[in-house]
Design a protein that fits this description.
100 residues, mainly alpha, 2 domains
Length: 100
């Protein structure tokens, strides 16, 4: 299997989600609606929403003009660093609404 960068996959999912209705109509008019029949708009929206923080984190960390190691800090600090946002995204029930 060929390697594909995560960001390319995410951006493809996001793009499909944004034009899903139009894409469905075009494929239907060309008699190729089966190509999108098994793609659920709800699942697509969930995947984009779930993966967005990881894409944002990747973009924030993959710079080469300045150091980014300082952005990876323990999740117990009072500020909400990048790592904390990702942890909270995975385990939202572990954090109350009053926790920073």
């Amino acid at each position: 299997m060929a390697e594909t960068r995560y960001s390319t996959v995410f951006l493809t999912l996001e793009s499909i989600e944004s034009v899903y209705s139009e894409l469905q109509e075009i494929l239907k008019s060309r008699g190729k609606s089966k190509r999108i029949d098994n793609v659920s708009p709800g699942v697509l929206a969930f995947l984009v929403q779930f993966l967005r923080p990881f894409y944002d984190a990747q973009r924030e960390l993959e710079v080469d003009k300045y150091p980014t190691l300082n952005l990876i800090v323990l999740a117990t600090q009072t500020e909400m660093p990048l790592s904390t946002r990702c942890v909270r995204h995975f385990f939202p029930s572990n954090y109350s609404s009053t926790t920073p």
